[in-house]
Amino acid sequence: MQVHTYARNASLCERAKRVVPGGVYGHQSAAQLPEGFPQFFARGQGSRVWDVDGNEYIDFMCAFGPIVLGHRHEAVERAVTEQQQLGTCFNGPTEYWVRLAELLVEITPHADWAWFAKNGTDATTFAVMVARAHTGKKYLLRARGSYHGSAPWCTPKPAGVTPEDTANQRFFTYNDLESVQQAVAEVGDDLAAIIVTPFRHDAWFDQEEVDPAFAHGLRAICDETGAVLILDDVRAGFRIDLRGSWAPLGVAPDLSAYSKAIANGYPLAAVVGREVLRAAAQEVFATGSFWFAGGPMAAAIATIETLRATNAIAHMERIGRLLREGLDAQARSYGLRIRQSGPVQMPFLTFESDQAFERSFTFTAEAAKRGAYLHPWHNWFLSAAHTEEDVETTLEITDIAFQIVRRVHGEG
Amino acid sequence: MQVHTYARNASLCERAKRVVPGGVYGHQSAAQLPEGFPQFFARGQGSRVWDVDGNEYIDFMCAFGPIVLGHRHEAVERAVTEQQQLGTCFNGPTEYWVRLAELLVEITPHADWAWFAKNGTDATTFAVMVARAHTGKKYLLRARGSYHGSAPWCTPKPAGVTPEDTANQRFFTYNDLESVQQAVAEVGDDLAAIIVTPFRHDAWFDQEEVDPAFAHGLRAICDETGAVLILDDVRAGFRIDLRGSWAPLGVAPDLSAYSKAIANGYPLAAVVGREVLRAAAQEVFATGSFWFAGGPMAAAIATIETLRATNAIAHMERIGRLLREGLDAQARSYGLRIRQSGPVQMPFLTFESDQAFERSFTFTAEAAKRGAYLHPWHNWFLSAAHTEEDVETTLEITDIAFQIVRRVHGEG
Known about the structure:
2 copies of one chain form a homodimer.
Chain A: H1 7-19, E1 41-45, E2 48-51, E3 56-59, H2 74-84, H3 96-107, E4 113-117, H4 120-135, E5 139-143, E6 169-172, H5 177-187, E7 191-196, H6 212-225, E8 228-232, E9 255-258, E10 269-273, H7 278-283, H8 294-309, H9 312-333, E11 338-341, E12 348-351, H10 358-370, E13 372-373, H11 388-409
Parallel strand pairs in A: 3-13, 5-6, 5-7, 7-8, 8-9
Antiparallel strand pairs in A: 1-2, 2-3, 4-10, 9-10, 11-12
Helix pairs in contact in A: 2-8, 3-8, 9-11, 10-11
């Protein structure tokens, strides 16, 4: 098995460091990844990506979520290209604005309207503003450690953030309803909203499925207090359930925030909401230079219709289960204790004996060098383009990676 | 001269109202425009746009700024298409990330690094965070009424905003250095930054060129206090001077925020900054799902290189001057007193006798119905695709529009 080399990547990293703070920042920075992970990419097709050195990878990150049908999905590219050949950015939206809003309202049982922006952070921020406008109250409850974006009110690092930016927030522990009730008691009658992810997918931690009683409990608290229940479906949306990621539980949020997978890689975010919040949503002023562009909306319609027509989520679940079972069996065969967590189509793997992700770093680096792009501390993403053959090839690679983990770090 | 009809637009507006709060929101909502302005568009080419009813317009709004080379500029479309045929959204940036940062640093005398995002609001927000991280201080000074985006800290409407969101701001009057000094005195030694637009382009007001003494005065205040001078070049950037809109004055900001015209309609924002702010910029955490995508960065390189190679800004100035002179002469000939303000390539026109924009509404509506898309209360934008013939055709249309203003509202 050929091991990759990274000469062009190294040269681009050097150049990037001169002209961008840190070279590459944010969630796609490779600075916190072991050697073997490239920073710069050149192309993608289906389940594969190629870095700037021409190294090929089976892509289990899917651009950290956006690529849900596979890179360059034909129906999506056709929709985008058709709009771009007419232009995409005008003095008002195209008719895709209406068609996409109608489609989101059609597929989402709890939605009576939709609203569009560009970033996941735009969507979560707008949802919180709508909740405050609707309730006339100001406190926001959120789970400790949950990621809801990178604006000053929610960015996970303190640099550049003032105490006032985060003053109107209280924290609870995910899946711990008592901690929510304590937070509710703390803010008295000034509770505007609870924002929550459909399951716990904090980076650097094993994922944690939501306890249905927790989800129902949040709904009940919001019903009692008049607070708005915001489901932050930015990361998980369109991979768990097209009706919204809590639809299988029978829990309807008041607002859902989407982005990432909504348009198979084209930039778009959305909030959908209940009728009772329409007036507040209309009152809040938020806008952006490119929010009305037709291309990404055409892409979103093609993406959602393809997901629906092909039963793509069931496919991702089937492929995800094959991968999980294969990894489990391999790890056992090498005497390595691993934990796999989260929905199988958004998998994550850690090593029980790791102190500081040392086995994870070895494992994912050795896999990357051989052509399987996994991630040591962030959940992975499958797409509808992943096949049984991709899983077989991946398992050939991870077999070697597990062997090396065993050799370097020993059993455990 | 054929007057437009709007049947399909009306039907889309009806459908939009059902599924989107307010139908269309933000700066591209036609709700605050008179009849005759379409809400939905189908295509653009060069200096022209067509609405969903097939009505053609000479486009003097350019998507509210983004379209600086004209719709579907060949070099830009080629660059985007080439990247999209390889995919655009991966697990890291493409090499355009490096090339675009290098290009921005090359053309901007005060820039040692560049940083990328999607919305103008992302750029202004990041700039303020960098200033706070760098200075360890928290107050931001800004001009009363200046638009710097639509996040909770800067959105112009109060709905959904808490007092804490705007607590660390003090206001001054544009072009009034004394009012800045008063605001500086108010915040004592806790001044992080001054954010300012290169000229005053607040909606609903005549534009106001910057007084060079004001710009130099802000620079001096920042030098004395250690505060960061942020030029919000989101709206004006790439239309005034490729080195930055205050380069002609010899005033170098510490940070500049760009978006809108940077990629001729493709979604991108940037901050460029001085070396001394690199460490703070690296410390602030901000990221977004689509911030690393290659397509819009390829478009930005093509846009900036074309602007430079074709001396496009000088062309826009020449065409803008023709339009201004023509409108001035026409208005005079009808005994109508108008004010034209701002740089000629970002023009604006008001009627001196208007109480509530009534002549502006009549004028722009009658122009829109006949194929010239102007705006009654927001500055206009020229692109490099506008020609002398476009101005001639526009003046034929505005001649009728002025006549109607004169007939409906009388002389004055």
